Request: fold
Amino acid sequence: MSLPGAPFVAYGGDELFIDGCAASELGERFGTPLYVYSRRAMLAALEPYQRALQGRQHLICYAMKANSSLAVLQTFAAAGCGFDIVSGGELQRVLAAGGDPGKVVFSGLGKTRAEMKLALEVGVRCFNVESEAELDQLSAVAASLGHRAPVSLRVNPDVDARTHPYISTGLKDNKFGIAHERAVETYRRAARLPGLEVVGIDCHIGSQITEIGPYLDALDRLLDLVEAVEAEGVSIRHLDLGGGLGIRYTDETPPAADALIAALLERIDARGHSHRALVFEPGRSLVGNAGVLLGEVLYLKPGTAAEENSTGPGKNFCIVDVAMNDLMRPAMYGATMAIVACQSRNEPQTVYDVVGPVCESGDWLGRDRALAVRPGDRIAVLSAGAYGMSMASNYNSRPRAAEVMVDGEHAALIRERETPAELFRGEHLLPR
Ligand code: LLP
Reply:
């Protein structure tokens, strides 16, 4: 079977290539841990969204929490995308990357006054509001600046996205959004508040969704609300259906973006809502398979042999220079991500737990992986373009990885490896 990320992540003979660049050479040149992204893979992931939405008034707002590196934002901005942001920091990144604030939707359930003010000053396209209290505060902040804030209400449609509980967001018990039953009343209130202008409705039901059904269920509930709200004289211009489309990490079979959108458009048209502008907030599906995380094998630690009365042989460990601080997903969600050798060896494979140097048993990248590797070999964690670098930390005082963007045979350093001095920048010793 092809690797996740194919055709941009694939073997050419014994060498793993990311687009036109050999992974082992990139590891050699830039050092490891190293995130490598293919620009062409990102644009190829965007294309089916754009194609399926052609001829409709629409905006694809890349959910930048998936990967907020400036060169990634620059790539999507140049391709015409807007951005889904969740903090003032993300907004500053959009501006630094040359993105258009007029194409930004501001999501998130805990926006501060300062964040609201900044977003109003630069003129974001819409605030996706998640509670009645937030609505009141946004109105007050906007009115104090002499603005009217464009708002959409994030509705919690109470549908099950059938994904990991930590990344499921559209259930009643999740902290997100305004309860479906309260939505019409909340729109009434929004329409009355002086600092607001109602422009849309939105939902986001979860992440790594691999079926179309939950999207259609959420869409139906949203359209029911749009009809009820408009019957009261409040008009809703755009429908924002969030992000959440899954990718293949190992053997998942998510729908293609164009198939998902076609199914949604068919339902929108059948219910007579063709005239509405559409917003989507994809994150993972645009960048996940466009990136890999390269590391080096430091040590191999064989398990103890099976002894009489023991439960079996101990585990073999493949200790690499990449750890949970670089890539949290396995430790945090038990996520399974493919791990391959950058240069395949024609030698028998051994089953290893691939682990990092961090002092926690939870610091593993993959369990029970068959690999033929020796110390000094480079390995690649695949599908690491989303929620990899953007969730990285400095735990164990480990500098964050460098990042490279490749385009054909060209490789550009887009983020320098953090230096030890940067680790304690801004810290102070107590006066002696
Ligand atoms: N819109 C909103 C309001 C969101 O909360 C999210 C993701 C997205 C869009 C983008 O969803 P995507 O298309 O990427 O699925 N760290 C987790 C994923 C957390 C997703 C949070 N919200 C992971 O590594 O799996």
